[in-house]
Amino acid sequence: MSQKSKAKRDTRKKQQGKRPFLRLNQREQVQNHAVLVDDQDQVVAAIGLQNRQWLLAIGGQTMGSAENPVPMLAMLQHMANVQEAEGRKVTLETSEAMKQIVASLAEADGVTAEEYIGKLVAEFDQAKEAAEAEEVDGEEATDVAVAEEVPADEDSKADKA
User: Fold this and answer.
1) What's the rounded Cα separation, in Å, for the pair 89 and 77?
2) Please, what is the angle between helix 96-109 and helix 70-85, to 10°?
């Protein structure tokens, strides 16, 4: 080892500058890629990327995570459609990276990005309609059961009198 090696090493370290180090339990920041904003510029829901994991946050709470953000984006678009149908003005802002992900998946299906997201949003609408139909069927069955019980009660009262 030469006598000047320590001096060379010290000058090299000074030129490199300080490296930041991650503290224990410190998380990487979430990078927003899709944000649903209301007319008062408040975030209603968002999709972000943290440590290669996509997160869905609604109302400030993390609701879920996934490796593919596109279904979550369709959910945000569905939420925007529902909000607008109720008379609230909301906008869905997406990043260029999110647009590229959707475009690549849409290209694989042979459709445009808007058609691809529209197809996924339609699945949410169909699920909502199916749930409403089940709810109506359940209420009708309950109404029929209640209607059948009422005459039975009246007959028992007539027998007692």
Assistant:
1) 13
2) 100
